[in-house]
Design brief:
Strand order of the largest sheet: 2-1-3-4-5-6
Number of strands: 22
Helix content: 25-40%
Number of helices: 14
Bound molecules: S-adenosylmethionine, iron/sulfur cluster, FE3-S4 cluster
Radius of gyration: 23 Å
Largest sheet: 6 strands, parallel
Oligomer: single chain
Shape: globular
Length: about 450
């Protein structure tokens, strides 16, 4: 019987992507199959996140919960951003852990497990060998019609509050032909929707592929989108996450030129006060952010926008907070993420004087989330009666008689299938009419 691996993933889509790659590499080298039942696992992997303190601490409580499984020979590995930041300190705190590995060394996990079994000692590898990871990963085993493709890794922006540049290393882009080959391979497996993935995908810069030799300039995200749209079978293109600073005129133009690029953009603004944006080292003003959105909405009036917000950054006054609320009122965001500032060890913002009491930060967060919620609700209601092209993901989670799909703006749509063969519509793009809007989903009927 094949050995089984249980993976618990914390944090962002990059980690979700990396977890899938861990399963692929463990499967191709050691025959592992994924299990959702921790009690039948031979190997337990925690793919961790250290973006906020709570996320970081969660891994140690989870490790305590699986420690007893070591008695039956289960191996335990810790990967991701906490592993990258803490390294050997994880073994000091949890000596029963067998392997500690970073986001850039996940392809070495099978070798680290072997070495651990041979030497009977914990193995630690949190180096940043850059592109090596992608050269050592087997082709993706794709199930659905939607797939993520990592186009760049790391981050060189060094926002003053953020651990990512320290845990994932500096930005580097994957070669253009590698990315296109991966997307072409996915489309032959029935993938119709591609999400180009990275911490700052609009920092993507790669030499032109040999087939385009003669062009001296570097390929950027706009060019990658153009080439992806030309690949047979690809019907929808998304990207995440992009940075307001590198939202170039070429990328804005791509919304006019490329209908396969969805009318939905997740563009983290973080704050609406220039004083705080500067202290965060974001490199743009609120007006510059708004101007980018204005240009995009001139091209795509229906563009749905989502964002990340940090509340209670050191020095945030009531006036600063009101500026953030004003920006939200002006721009109207769809489903977004908002967090109270969490000081992260080793980041410059962790040393800033912070005299705002926690209760005030909490009150601000609640006010901000309430405002965001009213907009999400209004946007949902405005969709009722409209026709939308949706990508069918499969049977609905709540009612297997129904199907679940996603709109371009990333909203979940549930609908009954009627006389059609259910198996024939999974993975299809269909037109539906939205009939009802709920807080987290829409109801629709097939057109
Ligand atoms: N690269 C993206 C960008 O620049 O916006 C975001 C990546 S970050 C991993 C995801 C989100 O976590 C950020 O957009 C930010 O809102 C939040 N975040 C990062 N560090 C944080 C901190 N120290 N405290 C609270 N939230 C934080
Ligand atoms: Fe963190 Fe800033 Fe990089 Fe985003 S751009 S990952 S917030 S340092
Ligand atoms: Fe967390 Fe690392 Fe992603 S800190 S948000 S898992 S890049």
């Amino acid at each position: 019987m094949n050995p089984k691996v249980f993976i618990k993933t914390f944090g962002c889509q990059m980690n979700e992507y990396d977890s899938d790659k861990m399963v692929d590499v463990l499967h191709s080298t050691q025959g592992y199959e994924k299990t959702l039942n921790v009690d039948e696992a031979d190997l337990i992997v925690f793919n961790t996140c250290s973006v906020r303190e709570k996320a970081q601490e969660k891994v140690f409580s989870d490790l305590g919960r699986v420690k007893h499984l070591k008695k039956k020979g289960v191996k335990i590995a810790v990967g991701g951003c906490v592993a990258s930041q803490e390294g050997g300190a994880i073994i000091d705190r949890a000596p029963f852990v067998d392997v500690v590995f970073g986001p850039q060394t996940l392809h070495r996990l099978p070798a680290l497990l072997d070495e651990g079994a041979r030497t009977k000692r914990p193995q630690i590898d949190i180096t940043f060998p850059e592109i090596e990871k992608f050269d050592h990963l087997p082709p993706a085993r794709q199930e659905g019609a939607s797939a993520f493709v990592s186009i760049m890794e790391g981050c060189s922006k060094y926002c003053s509050y953020c651990v990512v540049p320290y845990t994932r290393g500096e930005e580097f882009s994957r070669p253009l032909d590698d990315v296109l080959t991966e997307i072409a391979g996915l489309s032959t497996q029935g993938v119709k929707e591609i999400t180009l993935l990275g911490q700052n995908v609009n920092a993507y810069r790669a030499p032109m592929a040999p087939m385009m030799a003669g062009r001296s300039e570097m390929a950027d995200l706009a060019f990658l989108i153009e080439l992806t749209a030309q690949l047979p079978g690809i019907e929808r293109i998304r990207f995440t996450t992009s940075h307001p600073n590198e939202f170039t005129p070429r990328l804005i133009e791509a919304y006019g030129k490329e209908p396969k690029l969805v009318s939905h953009l997740h563009l983290p603004v973080q704050h609406g006060s220039d004083k705080i944006l500067m202290a965060m080292k974001r490199g743009y003003t609120a007006l510059e952010y708004k101007s980018t959105i204005k240009k995009l909405r001139a091209i795509r009036p229906d563009l749905s926008l989502s964002s990340d917000f940090i509340v209670g950054f050191p020095g945030e006054s009531e006036d600063d907070f009101n500026k953030m609320m004003g920006l939200i009122e002006d721009l109207y965001f769809d489903a977004s993420f908002s967090f109270i500032f969490s000081p992260r060890p080793g980041t410059p913002a962790a040393n800033l004087h912070d005299d705002t009491p926690h209760e005030i930060k909490l009150r601000r967060l609640q006010a901000l989330q309430a405002l965001l919620d009213t907009h999400v609700k209004a946007i949902g209601e405005s969709l009722v009666g409209q026709h939308r092209r949706v990508l069918v993901e499969g049977p609905s989670k709540k009612d297997p008689q129904e199907f679940m799909a996603r709109t371009e703006c990333n909203r979940v749509v549930n609908f009954a299938v009627g006389p059609r063969d259910p198996a024939s519509i999974t993975g299809q793009m269909l037109e539906v009419k939205i009939t009802q809007a709920f807080a987290h989903s829409l109801r629709a009927e097939l057109v």
